[in-house]
Amino acid sequence: xxxxxxxxxxxxxxxxxxxxxxxxxxxxxxxxxxxxxxxxxxxxxxxxxxxxxxxxxxxxxxxxxxxxxxxxxxxxxxxxxxxxxxxxxxxxxxxxxxxxxxxxxxxxxxxxxxxxxxxxxxxxxxxxxxxxxxxxxxxxxxxxxxxxxxxxxxxxxxxxxxxxxx
Length: 166
Fold this sequence. Notes:
Elements lengths: L4 H7 L4 H30 L2 E7 L6 H17 L2 E7 L9 H4 L13 H10 L3 E4 L1 H7 L9 E2 L2 H7 L4 E4 L1
Parallel strand pairs: 1-2, 1-5, 2-3, 3-4
Helix pairs in contact: 3-5
């Protein structure tokens, strides 16, 4: 006899790591899809709000740079306010000495993370970082403009924003 669905689900639980990967991929895909279609949505509804969440730094320069490039897309197109929130290894991007060394082999034509951060700051992009992450990775070279902003900031601000998770 076949087991009910609830019993089958208990046999093969999803690990926390697999859940987070799946959630991240889904949110990243949704965010990328929103940016790809965002021009028409932003034009039809006025200027939007974009939250780019970056969880990678020197540990994965491709993803770190990708997140900054998505922020640049929204800021350069004038689609609305752009916020970059850094957490986990993404806190590397809040540190000048580390950001200067982060360069993606895929996106090398765009320069280092520090080059992109400087460009974004010139476009009035806001930068925030998870306080414990920033404290953990801080090497004393934190950019002055990066604010400590916790998970409460993130949860409040993603409710009415286009979100890209990188």
